[in-house]
Amino acid sequence: MRLGWTTRLLASLVLGLLLGGCRTAPPAGVRADPALASLAPADTLLLAGFRMDKIRQTEVYRKLLAERSFERLDAFAREAGFHPVTGVWEVLAAYTGKYPLLLARGKFSPTGGLEPRLREGAPRRMYKGYTLIGDERASVAFLNSSTAAAGPAAAVESVIDGRGSSAGIPAAILEKMKTLPADSHAWAVSIAGLEGAPLPAPPAGNLGNLARLFRSVNGGTAWAKLGAGLSAEVTMTAAEAQAARQVHDALRG
After folding, report:
1. Could you give the angle at which helices 206-214 and 241-252 cross, rounded to 10 degrees?
2. DSSP-assigned beta bridge partners for residue 235
3. Band of pLDDT at residue 119, cut at 50, 70 and 90
4. What is the pLDDT of residues 207-221, one digit of tens each?
5. What is the torsion angle, in degrees rounded to the nearest 10, for the CA atoms of residue 192, residue 97, residue 150 and residue 71?
6. Residue 194: helix, strand or coil by DSSP?
7. SS3 (DSSP) at 66
8. Which of 25, 47, 79, 109 is deepest in the core (most CB within 10 A)?
């Protein structure tokens, strides 16, 4: 039996719809570089991600940041041999309740070696086959030519201890990450409050009052996108309704 062209067209459309319905929908939410995600501490309470390669492509970055100089970052670049903004692709910042930790992916060694050209004389010591550069307060280890961990020495040692056996980002944080836009340039997820976190002392005035109020928050999410401008959203939760109202009113003010 021969089919007319309208019948063949209808059959093709139906087949296409059926096949299309079988496709797996793309995962929602933000995703971290797998190499960094696998290094995240199992007891992480706050995790923030920065897609530096994407940020550098935005108009906002080109207009406001590309030509600016930041003294501390520039000084770090001179000593470390790579720039923490222009020399990395992605950064994960984690806080466990005990210490902060930075995990970064980038091209750290132009020669293909494990470490970039770090300042001569920087304290160094070996730990389970890796070189820790720095002191107990602040150290960095290059796990390979494109992955680095930085923070207090105890934090970096913990990353090395768990390498290959860590479960990575905790499930509770992964669930919150699914609620954030996949194309966010920067994002943050917290499943606990900031009380006790090693944050700078609050400044005087209204900003200081706001910073103190933030310490009453017990979790939340944030995301930001850069284009020609900035779009962002912050959601926070508090243990008490009064604290939530105070943060809300302070932000509006």
Report:
1. 150
2. 221
3. low
4. 555 556 556 677 889
5. 70
6. coil
7. coil
8. 47
